[in-house]
């Protein structure tokens, strides 16, 4: 297991800086309940970026830190490297704690938006945006998502102006051995 490329992360988050705004025409989920959101999520779709390029079997784990912030552990498998990639970060609410607008950092004081823009009532499926419309993730509590739910999310994202035709759908099939856990050491 290796850490996500530090150079790529450094460039990405220095460039993003304090980009914690909400894209125009996008509203974070209201009545957001962090305790229900915590836990394990599978990445069903994403807009491609250098810090995840080539990764499959991507998951995110969210847990509460003692200080009330959210511990973030993202993992993904790089077939090209035949290795698991791991990124640890933390997230905090930007404003009210019942609004799905957080800021996330994987590198020191540099934060970027993490905006929950769609959420199933049972907290089984979510759609997340970054600070602009070139960042979008569709997440599920299971490795697959019902087609009707996915279609509703895609239509919502398209109506908000996201380039859904550019989404990639990383595989979530059987995992190679030695996957790091959210609790494993750096």
From TrEMBL:
It is found in: Cell outer membrane. Its main location: membrane. It holds the Pfam family Lipocalin_2. InterPro entries: Calycin, Lipocalin_ApoD, Lipocalin_bac, Lipocalin_Blc-like_dom, Lipocalin_CS, Lipocln_cytosolic_FA-bd_dom. Keywords: Cell outer membrane, Lipid-binding, Lipoprotein, Membrane. Coiled coil: none annotated. Residues 33-172 form the Lipocalin/cytosolic fatty-acid binding domain. Involved in the storage or transport of lipids necessary for membrane maintenance under stressful conditions. Displays a binding preference for lysophospholipids. Belongs to the calycin superfamily. Lipocalin family. Homodimer. This is Outer membrane lipoprotein Blc. It comes from Microbulbifer variabilis.
